Amino acid sequence: MNPHLSQLHPYPFEKLVTLKQGITPPADKAHIALSIGEPKHATPHFIQEALLRHLHGLTQYPTTKGLPELRQAIADWTCRRFGIPTGGVDAETQVLPVNGTREALFSLVQAVVDPADKPVVIMPNPFYQIYEGAALLAGAEPYYLNTVEVDGYLPDFDSVPEAIWQRCQLIFICSPGNPTGTVLTQSDHLKLLALADKYDFVIASDECYTELYDDEAHPPQGLLQSAYQAGITDFKRCVIFQSLSKRSNAPGLRSGFVAGDAEVLKQYFKYRTYHGCPMPVPTQHASIAAWNDEEHVNLNRQLYRDKFSAFIEILQDVCEISRPPASFYIWLKTPIDDAEFAKQLFAQQNITVLPGSYLSRDSGGINPGANHVRIALVAPIEECVEAAQRIKAFLNENKP
Order of strands, edge to edge, in the sheet holding 256-260? Predict the structure, then answer.
């Protein structure tokens, strides 16, 4: 067996099952799940209909590169969304459709990393655990870049030692962040682009939450947007990951894309032809419909805004809680150990949240996820309001 498999940590939700084992929550309270970032809003009918209209496509083997119409729809959306001139993203050489960002985040690392060179993969801490698993299985050493409150829960690139940058082959950034909802600015991107140019590493920007933001006048900045504005029109060393899971409430569609540096994508495409992961043709047509429509995304954002407003209003007088600029997560500080908080909240109120320490690693003498829980406001607003009321009661009854 691959010896690197032994280095993999249990997935956060496996730990959560163990944490809750043997606990019987109150029977008079319906369970409310706020632990998994799985959108519960309805998938728009026009996406479903596009899928059904093209079921005849199941008789075809799909190609790894995908339909030209899909790549063009993705390229056009990327240009519209990130202020890049039409044609600034080449659908032929700078776009690849993928079966959701999870498989792409993992597989890109396998294509990019050279294990013979003592590679390092830098990632934010806390993080999406795929980053770590991808690095370990590629034979790289993960470097955990703490995102802590004093820095606004943003990565401090200046804190990374020179020796780490010299060995870095790829860095993951996640903006808007999971679990914090914080957003990297153009100046953050420019600093990282300069570092990538100096030390020659790939920037892998996980942007699957960019379409869920609070301020309609200030959508989150994308990496390709920053690169283009800085004159890096070939997106050298830049790769972004986007998905329809959050944007279009279609996590089961397993549809997203990778875009950016044509040279990186050329080699990644070669890898994917062996990886065996082309997107089914009906899924591609449903994806074209989704990328070509913004009305449903605007409505989706408003649903999350309403939930954030209602949830925070209920809790703001009993705990320190802030509204993130983007994503659908509340990164809540806990008055006690985060795992104990989650355990007792389930036992007393039948609500499941995710301990922050399950999303991070000890680094530099701290675990930056400790004493936080991630709350995913994915349930209907009525359930989110009920959950907030129960959490308020829990906090009032369990004051340290």
Answer: 95-98, 256-260, 238-243, 202-206, 168-174, 120-125, 141-146
pLDDT tens digits, one per residue of 240-290: 999 999 999 999 999 999 999 999 999 999 999 999 999 999 999 999 999
Cα-Cα end-to-end distance for the chain: 48
| CATH topology assigned to domain 59-293 | Aspartate Aminotransferase; domain 2 (3.40.640)
Residue 55 to residue 285: CA distance in whole angstroms: 10
| Residue recorded with tokens 């340290």 | 400
> How far apart, in whole angstroms, are the C-alpha atoms of residue 51 and residue 71?
17
Q: Are 348 and 26 in contact (CB under 8 A)?
A: yes
State yes or no: pLDDT of 400 exceeds 80. no
Q: Measured between alpha carbons, how far is residue 258 from residues 102, 264, 354 in Å?
A: 11, 11, 28
- What pLDDT does 273 receive? 96
Does the domain at 3-42+296-397 match CATH 3.90.1150.10? Answer given as: yes
CA 305-308-309 angle, 5° bins: 85
Question: Measuring CA to CA, which residue among 291, 277, 275 is closest to residue 61?
Answer: 277
Rg (CA), the chain: 21
pLDDT in the model for residue 357: 98
Tell me what the mean pLDDT of segment 312-331 comes to: 97
- Helices (H) and strands (E) in the chain — how many of each? 14, 12
The 10s digit of each residue's pLDDT in 150-173 is: 999 999 999 999 999 999 999 999
pLDDT of residue 362: 97
Phi, psi dihedral angles at 174 (to 5 degrees): -135, 110
Where are the chain's structural domains?
3-42+296-397, 59-293
